[in-house]
Amino acid sequence: MADIIRMPRLSDTMEEGNIVGWLKKVGDKVKPGDVLAEVETDKATMELESFQDGYLLYIGVPSGPVKVNGVLAVIGNQGEEYQGLLDSASDGTAASPAPTAEDTKPAEQAKVEKSATSTAAPKVEPAPASAQDAERLKISPLAKTIADNKGIDVHNIKGSGDQGRIIKRDIETAISQPAAAKSSAQVLGTESFTEVPVSQMRKTIARRLGESLFTAPHFYLTVELNMDQAIEARKNLNAMDGVKISFNDLVIKSVAAALRLNPAVNSSWLGDRIRYNQHIHIGVAVAVEDGLVVPVIRHADQKSLSQLNTEVKELAQKAKDKKLQLAEMEGNTFTISNLGMFDIDEFTAIINPPDACILAIGSIVEKPVVRDGQVVVGNMMKVTLSCDHRVVDGATGARFLQSLRLFLENPIRILA
């Protein structure tokens, strides 16, 4: 009996998914575990697997956005009638009945190619290629998406997949190679622009942070910390065999220790109540191609600096590879956003729900400071705490920053 395949809810905040491309076509035999399509959610690009055994009889949406629970496809016995099943779905996403697999194979393929072309980012100067070349081009949907985002001309890439199919690895290799010299001739005064569809991740970032900024009354507290001792401590730690510590690791460890002393900051506004968390799960903002994700370091106060370093690196790489699992992005009780590596001296961050606070970290800057009545060079770093005034008051936030200063300016305290 035929079964309807619907868009699953792949994350807790997902309202719709974007079909990047189908890896199976109408008429293909499928079995449980086969990947049917690639779906872009608000947090990552994920694979849609089949749980049925049969043939792919119908594809409702070749590419583009689909609401959660919308009809995606039909799987059943070869030649089985399924239009009545689509009619009874009554969700408005079912299309007109599709002919048999053999009759519609070219049309279905053309439909996918046409939709993929319409959703790809328009280019001002598209790479020249004949229609015949385009028809012969074999490329996976994920590879095509990456190539479009990076502006890579896939017609000049030799595929290493089956039958010369261009796959993700080929695009990554092309990106890592020096770009070919391009003509610098331009027509002066020509206006141009590029528009790209908003990704599911960017939509969610816009919605969640918009809600945070305009519903949570933010206020900001900024202090400047002397990082001389932290620099010395990091230098001594990294001189040890097998140990590699970053300033971000010191910040995470110090924040965790400060939260243990100031539990009122480790809290959440829940509308009719305030939750004070006894556990400390620190979210670390990571910039990725489509926006920003926040992997979570669980029980950060109980981990060593080397453990923090290893975990942050692993999660950051998974975030950039779009391989983070939902469980690795949930449960944060406090968030850190660090732009110091980009030479940003100071900034304010928008609170990451459901947290009550987020800490913005600037770069370490050499500047004159007064020490023991003498003007000397100091290594100073500004940090800004964004607070939800419904939960955290000014004095509470100030005490947290005093504790943070104590640990970062005397890092031996977090190592004891």
What keyword list fits this structure?
single chain; alpha+beta; 6-stranded mixed sheet; 11 helices; 18 strands; elongated
Strand percentage, roughly?
A: 15-25%
Rg (CA only): 26 Å
Q: Unreliable stretches, pLDDT < 50, 5 or more residues?
A: 91-135, 180-185
Query: N-to-C SSE series?
Result: EEEEEEEEHHHHHHEHHEEEEEEHEEEHH
Strand order of the main beta sheet, please? 9-18-17-16-12-15
Shape: elongated
What is the distance, rounded to the nearest whole angstrom, between the alpha carbons of the first and last residues?
65 Å
Whole-number average pLDDT? 82
Helices, by number, come to 11
Q: Tally of extended strands?
A: 18
Biggest sheet, in brief? Answer: 6 strands, mixed
Q: Which structural class should the secondary elements be placed in?
A: alpha+beta
Proportion in helices: 25-40%
